C-alpha cells in the first residue's frame, strides 16, 4: 500500500513538474515550428506577438496546449488591405509524446474564441482564402511536408463570425454568433464525423437582394468520412432555419484535384405552414410564436453534379403550399386561401439554363384577393410568361400583416401581364395598369403624413420590341402638410425615349426622407419649382437642344446633404435659378461645405446630356467666391476613394489624402477666396481661373499670398489615376524668405538643404512636374523641372560647407557669404537638384560653384576659387606647387583652385583637386556639371526603361489572365448551349412518343389560376 501511495505521489510530482516546465521546454520549439510552417506553406501575412504565445499541460492533459492570442491573417497582392481572419484566441491541443519525440507533431484539437473570418472571391474567381501551398508544391521545393499531422478528434468555435463575399456569382453571406462543435478521429481513414452548429443571425444576399435576413440556424449533422476515397456521406442530420426544419441525404466527393461531386437531396421534415412562414423577412419576431397558422407544405429538392472551373452541379426545388392561412392574434383579419405551386429546375447547373415555374400563387388579404403566376426559362435571354392581379384596400391589408411604424390607407389596384423574351434587344409583350386612390402614408418617425395620393398609369408593349413600350402616367397628386405636388409623364421608345413631363409644387426633403429614409445619407431642406420638359432623348444625345422643350424655375432653401462619401456635409442656405433647353442660369447660390463657405452664380449647359446620357459632361462657367475654404476636408484615400480621417474631422490642420477632380465636369471656375487652408499652410487672396475637365484641373493666372510672399501659378493637376495624381506647374514666387520656405516646404528641405543656413529673400520662376503623394505633397523622387532662382539678398552663416572651404583654402572671408541680386539657373531631374554654374565675388576673391545634391542629402558639387596668391597659406601654396609644377607659386599674381564638395550638408567633405595659374574656373565647373547632368539623365532613362519593361510585363500577365478567363467563359457557354439543346431534344422526343420526362424536381401542371380580383375594378 505504501508503495502504491508513493508511486501515485511520484506521478503527481512529475505531472506538476511537467505542467510547470512545459512553457519553458516547448514554447520556443513550437514557435519556431509554427514560423517555419507559415513561411513555407502560407501565402499570406500572419501577424502575432511572441509574448501572446503560451504553452500549458495542466488544463489540457494528456495533450499539450498551445495558446495563441490576437492572431491575424492578412492577404497579399489583390488582398493586401484585407484581413482574412482575426483570431482573438486560438487554442490547439497537441499530442504530448509527438512533441517530445519531435519527428511529427500531431494536432488533436482546435478551439477558436470569437474568430472573425472574412472570405472574398473577386469577379475573376480569385479567392483570398486560397493561401495554403499544397504538399506537392512544397515537396517540389524540397520542403518537409510531414512536420505536422492532422490527427484532430474534436474542435470548437465560440461566438464566431463568418462573412462571405463572392463577386463572381454575385452572392454574399454574413453569419454572426456562430457556436460550433465537432467530433471525429482524423487519425483514421474511415470514421464518423458529428457536429452541431448554431448561428444567431444569418443574412444571405444574391444580386443585391436579401433572401435571408437575420435568420437563426440550428444544425445537427452526422457524416460518414472516407478519407481514402475522399467521399463524405450524410447520415442522420437535421437543419433548422428559424422554425423550418429540413434534412439532407447523399454524398460529397473529391475524386481528383479539380472536381467536387455532389449527389444530395433535401426535404422538409415537417409539413406545417407555420414552419415555412418563419422564413418570410420580418416574421420571425416575438409575436411569431403566437401566430395562428394552418395549411400544408411540401418542400424538397436536389443538388447533383460536378463542380470545377467549367461546371456547377444541377439543382432543383419543389415547393407546394395548400389551403394555408395565418393570423396575428393582435390583428382583426387573416390571410387565407394561400396556395402556391413553385418549381425551380436546372439539371445542367448553368445559371442561364434555370427554369422557374410558379404555376399558382393566390392569397386573400382579408377580403382582398391577390393572384399571380410566372414561368421563367433562362436568364440571358429570359423567356417570361406571367401575370399579377390585385385589388387591395391598404388599411385592410395592415389588419392582416403588421408593418412596424407605418400606417396606410387607400385603394391599390394592379393588373399586369408579361409574355415573351427579355434581352438587351427584346422585351415581353406587356400590358400593365396601376392605380392608387385616396392614398395615405404615415410613418411613426415623422408625424406628418403624405395624404391625398392619387395616381393612375399604364405600361403597354404590344410587339415585344423595346422601343414600342409606352409609359403613361396622366396624373399624379399628393399633399404633404398642406403643400401639394402634382405631375404627369408620358414616354415611349425606351432606347432613346420620347417624353413629355411636368412637375409643380414644393417638396420638403426633411419630411420626405423621414417618411422614406435614405440609407447612408441625410438630406434636409425645401425645394419648390414648376418644371416642364418634352422632347426626344436622341436630340439630347446629339446636342440638338433647340428641339427639346424645357423650362422652369427652381428655388431651394436650407438644403443639407451628408453621406459616407461626404462626411463633412454640404449646406445650401439659398439658391435660385431658371432653365431652358440649353442651359441653367444660376442666379444665386450660397452655402457651406464642411467648415468652408461659398457663393456662386453663372450658367451651366448640357445639363440634359449630363443627366440622361452616361459619359456626357456638365459644362458651364461659374463665378465662385469664399471667405474661408479648407482644402484638407476634401481629401480621399487614393485606393478606396473614400474620405480620409482628416476629411472627417471638424477642423483638420494637416493634409490627409488626395483631392479628386470630378470625372464628367467641363467647367470654368472664376474663383476668389480670401483664405485657403491647404495642409498646414494658410493662403490669402487666392484669385484665378480653374478649368475642370476630364478629371484634370487646369490653373490659369492663379495668385495668392502666403509666408509673406506672392505666389503665381499656371499649370494642371491630374487625377485620372487617383492612386498616382500628377501635376505640371509653372511657379512664379516673389520675396519669399529662405527660413520660411525651409520650414514650410518639404521640397525645399530635401532639394535645397543649404537654405537652413541662409538668411534673406528670394524669388523664382520655375516649371516643375511630378506626382503627388497621399498627403497632397510632391513625391520628391518623381520631380522634374527647370527654372531660375532670383536671390534678392542672402547671407550664408554658420555653414559647415563654407567653413571647410574657408579652412582648406585659408580664405577667412569665405566663411560667411553675402549674395545680392544673383540669378541661379537650376534643374530637377528625377528628384535630384542640378545647379548650373554661377559666379560669386567676395572682396577680391572670385568663386564659381555648381553641381548636384540628391534626395538622400548627398552633395556632389564642384567649385573653382580665383584668389590673390598672397592670401593663400603655405600649405595650400605647397599643394599648388605639386598640382601645377610651378616652383615659385608666390611669384604669380592670382591662382585658381579646384574643389570637390561631397558628403552631406551636416558632414561635408571638401577636397582640393586642381590648381591653375589661369582664371579658367568657370569652364572647369561647367564641364563637370554638364558631365554630372548627362549621367543623371542617363540614369533616369534607364529607370524609365526598366519601369516600362515592368509595366509591359505586368500588362502581358494581365492580358494572359484575361484571355484564360475568356477561354473559360467560351467553354462554359458552349457546354451550356449543349445542355440546353439536350433538354430541348429530350422534350421533343417525349412529346413525339407521348411520354413525359421525369426530373428530380418535376414541373407541376401550369394551369392558370382563377381570376378572383373582379371586386371593385377601377
UniProtKB/TrEMBL annotation:
Skewed-composition ranges (Low complexity): 997-1018
Domain of life, source organism: Bacteria
* Biological processes annotated in GO: regulation of protein targeting to membrane
Write down any Gene Ontology CC term: plasma membrane
Ranges for domain AsmA come to 2-227
Chain positions covered by the region annotation Disordered: 988-1018
The cross-references to InterPro entries, in alphabetical order and at most eight, read:
AsmA, AsmA-related
The name under which this protein is listed is AsmA family protein
Q: Which organism is it from?
A: Hymenobacter setariae
